[in-house]
Specification:
The protein is an alpha/beta fold and 334 residues long. The protein is built from ten helices and 18 strands.
Length: 334
Amino acid sequence: MANLNHTVSMTENKTADFQNKQTTAHLMMVRPLNFGFNPETAVNNFFQIENASLKPAEIALLAQTEFDKMVDNLRNAGMRVIVFQDDEHPHTPDSVFPNNWVSFHEDGRIAVFPMFAESRRNERREEMFDILADDFGFEIKEIEDFTHFEDEGLYLEGTGSVVLDRINRKAYAALSDRTDFHAFETFCDRFDYEGVAFKAYLSRDDKRVPIYHTNVMMGIGSKYCVICLNAIDHPQDRQVVRDSLKSSDRKIIEISEAQMLQFAGNILAVENRDGKEFCVMSSAAHASLRPDQLELLSKYATIIHSPLSTIELLGGGSARCMIAEIFLPVKVNS
């Protein structure tokens, strides 16, 4: 595995207790080097659109500019952002989306996930874990490796496939080629989550096709959930999800399919060093929301949005996909 450069913006909060919290101020991101359209992922990610008018070097530069702006916005709001720099080899056009291969948990465990696209499996770099422990003081007790599911052709792409309600220990999953039910059950059993599985769709060429990742249709904050309930075609499934969110004391903020396609569901709740909650999204997502939706969301969190048009268009992912939250315990003397 290649050595990775890394940068960090430190906060003063060294002893925060992450137990039963939905948000953290500790965020991991990967700065892309060769970002671009990936045909291997486009077979079932219908949010991706190829732009043949741009040269690879132009695309990479645009993606890096968008990435850097988003990092600046997060750091200026008081988050601790640890940035790893991607390497030239192996070629990883989707490395900017680390939440698909790793998740970090309050009890000191790390989950490593099975990936649908072979090209994306090269993004998994466990030397990052050594850096997080040695350089930044995070406690790592165990690594739960789910990658063996790839041998069976089964996949579960991290917190893209699974949207976690960490407070109430519930996990939501829209089943698809990238989100297998058996792998999801196994994750829930290992990490003590109640699983809520369903199927969700979007319209394409006059057909309803599965949504590739759950986190493009829903995102959960401490007191709210932004969700496209109309993407859940089966009325019973839709009611189960609605009831589960309500019983978890979440205010449901519904978005339309058109808003979902602008990544309004691909949001992430985070907090800063003072414990203030923020909702991170792209500028396209923000522009798609109605004034009443923005007003309601702003009751629960301060919105941060960044322009991510290149990453969204060619990568088919947005702000939430770019962040892997670190809930690992922090050593007191770090």
